[in-house]
Amino acid sequence: MRGLISFTGILILVCLPLLSCADEEDKYTWESMEVTATAYNAVASQTDSLVNIAAWGDTLKPGMKCIAVSRDLLKKGLRYDTPVKIEGFEGVFRVKDKMHGRWVNRIDIFMGVDVEKAREWGRKKVVIQYGIPLNEGEETNLVGK
């Protein structure tokens, strides 16, 4: 009996995160586009004086899966906290930062303080998928937030 209870507990712990991911996927229509992807770090030479604070006020920490987007992409639906899948990466990233207005059709992948990793990434053309909420009326990720 104890074995069955232990097995059931382990099964719940393993399957519960998978179910929540499926629910997350089902909340969006996924659109694709090709963009230029670069990488950035939370270091003074690449940001302003508040190296860990993103454009909307989020505090970025190493290991977070987040990106900055060029301002033209904001108008295409990649708004604050939009989920984004990036070709070549596992998992889902979130839009947490905006790039300078001079950049077009570009994302910048946050790589914490690992400058060497960002340099190795360089600049690449990648296909991204981004989630548009199925219930636009319930959408909370606004361009101006």
From TrEMBL:
<protein>
    <recommendedName>
        <fullName>3D domain-containing protein</fullName>
    </recommendedName>
</protein>
<keyword id="KW-0732">Signal</keyword>
<feature type="signal peptide">
    <location>
        <begin position="1"/>
        <end position="22"/>
    </location>
</feature>
